[in-house]
Amino acid sequence: MRVLVLGSGGREHALARALHRDPSVTALHCAPGNPGTAEIADNHQLDPTNRTAVVELAARLRVGLVVIGPEAVLVAGVGDALRKAGIPCFGPDRAAARIEASKAFAKEVMAAAGVPTADSRVCESSGQVEEALDAFGPPYVVKDDGLAAGKGVVVTESRDEALRHADACDRVVVEEYLDGPEVSLFALCDGQHAVPLLPAQDFKRAYDGDEGPNTGGMGAYTPLPWAPPGLVDEVMSTVVQPTVDELRRRETPYVGVLYAGLALTSRGVRVVEFNARFGDPETQVVLDRLATPVATLLQACAIGGLDPSLQLEWLPGAAVTVVVAAEGYPAAPAKGDEITGLEEAAAVEGAYVLHAGTALGGEGRPVANGGRVLNVVGTGPGLAAARAAAYEAASKIGLRGSHHRTDIALKAVSMP
Ligand code: AMP
Ligand code: GLY
Predict the structure, then answer these.
(1) Fewest beta carbons within 10 Å, which of 96, 274, 316, 385?
(2) CB of 279 closer than 6 angstroms to any ligand 2 atom
(3) What is the pLDDT of residue 363?
(4) Is the CB of 182 under 6 A from ligand 1?
(5) How many angstroms does the Cα of residue 216 sit away from the middle of ligand 2?
(6) 371 and 357 in contact (C-beta within 8 Å)?
(7) Over the stretch 54-76, which tens digit does the pLDDT of each residue have?
(8) What pLDDT is recorded for position 104?
(9) Cβ atoms of residues 130 and 183 within 8 Å
(10) Which residues have C-beta within 8 Å of that of residue 84, sequence separation ≥ 6?
(11) Does residue 18 contact residue 33 with C-beta atoms inside 8 Å?
(12) Ligand 2 mean position to 59 CA, how many Å?
């Protein structure tokens, strides 16, 4: 099978790595990819949101599968264009991707499908916002209705801060605060059937102890030793399948990965958000553990005929990823600084490094080129070993002003 991956981040490097491991993949291409994917695939410089350019490239490369990474590519309608051209595509059409692109749409689908989520109100004026804030009380949760790369959400005790965020957006969703730990569960969908991957946990805040601003994600781990038994089955039957059924009923079938961001609250499982693509950086750890060849699986979603009773195979042990972020991330990441220690990091047993926001600078040396620069992945027989490998490898990386969280998977490791 010839495969094209769209996107340029750590998630796409992880996807390329997993596809590269699948013996059925005879040619692997990325567009645009990054210096990490260049080591295992052919990179093609193009704007992945350009429908015409993507269809042309996929046709020229005669690929049997296109895998879409970023939400912006889905929202640009690249999935629609590929399917129209008869090219199998893993990633929903623009209409179904609204499950991520519009918080208000996601809420409407959840209400119709009876999916448990936070009570919420869509607000378009400051008067409406003030009313909603007072109805739900603190902590206040205010979400920009549009796409904001995980950064459009403010959770705060301060009513003023909540109001200021709402004022800066056109339309917001104000909602009830959900307590309890968060879990990311990805389900592969073919429009009708869905198969779950391993649940993972992401660390959204910039600094240790869940302090600082929300980011795209500063680290992740899987599996979750503390997750209640039966969690995945429960989420599949109360969240994922009803959502897939509802989108099918609306004639916008969901093909791709449905990412359920969940809170395990004192009152039960609630959906915090849906995303229409693989989570970043959770994918880096989840795909690390997947033993079932991934290309055939994603292609089955793209062309239909995913076997819902399929039991995926997982490697024993655990994976932890630590995001090395550029100076100033998330507000104003510094670009262009040289990265050192990549080989030393990769030489740490059980560890490897995925490129997330890198480019090749002068003399072909890697430099920071985005907020989240590298994803250092550690693996091992258990979370403690995986965590130790990840942090040892991260300590080898040199990047002026960079920062990373030191507490990824720490609580899970410390649990009895
Ligand atoms: P979202 O973009 O909707 O995933 O929100 C980003 C992050 O904000 C989530 O991962 C949560 O940590 C937090 N968050 C979002 N909605 C809520 C909520 N209703 N209650 C508590 N925290 C929330
Ligand atoms: N890790 C969170 C996200 O991908 O949105």
Answers:
(1) 316
(2) yes
(3) 87
(4) yes
(5) 5
(6) yes
(7) 999 999 999 999 999 999 999 99
(8) 86
(9) no
(10) none
(11) no
(12) 30
Smallest-distance ligand from the CA of 259: 2
Distance 150 CA to ligand 1 centre (A): 9
- Our mutation pick for probing the ligand 1 site, out of 121, 144, 153, counting the most ligand atoms within 8 A of Cβ, is 153
Distance 156 CA to ligand 1 centre (A): 11
* Residue 115, Cβ density class (10 Å: 0-12 exposed, 13-18 middle, ≥19 buried): buried
The residue length of the chain stands at 416
pLDDT tens track, the chain, 416 positions: 999 999 999 999 999 999 999 999 999 999 999 999 999 999 999 999 999 999 999 999 999 999 999 999 999 999 999 999 999 999 999 999 999 998 889 999 999 999 999 999 999 999 999 999 999 999 999 998 876 655 588 899 999 999 999 998 888 989 999 999 999 999 999 999 999 999 999 999 999 999 998 899 999 999 999 999 999 999 999 999 999 999 999 999 999 999 999 999 999 999 999 999 999 999 999 999 999 999 999 999 999 999 988 999 999 999 999 999 999 999 999 999 999 999 999 999 999 999 999 999 988 999 999 999 999 999 999 999 999 999 999 999 999 999 999 999 999 998 86
Complete domains list, the chain, with CATH: 2-94 (3.40.50.20), 121-175 (3.30.1490.20), 181-303 (3.30.470.20), 318-414 (3.90.600.10)
Ligand 2 within 6 A of 280 CB?
yes
> DSSP H helical segments within 250-333, as ranges?
282-289, 294-303
Written as six digits, the tokens of 55 are 């269809």
Q: What is the mean pLDDT of the chain?
A: 96
* 371 touches 302 (CB < 8 A): no
Ligand 2 atom 4, closest CA: 279
Ligand 1 center–CA 155 separation, angstroms: 7
Centre of ligand 2 to C-alpha 279, Å, is 4
- Ligand 1 in reach of 155 Cβ (< 6 A): yes
Q: Which ligand neighbours the alpha carbon of 147 most closely?
A: 1
**How does DSSP classify residue 218?**
S
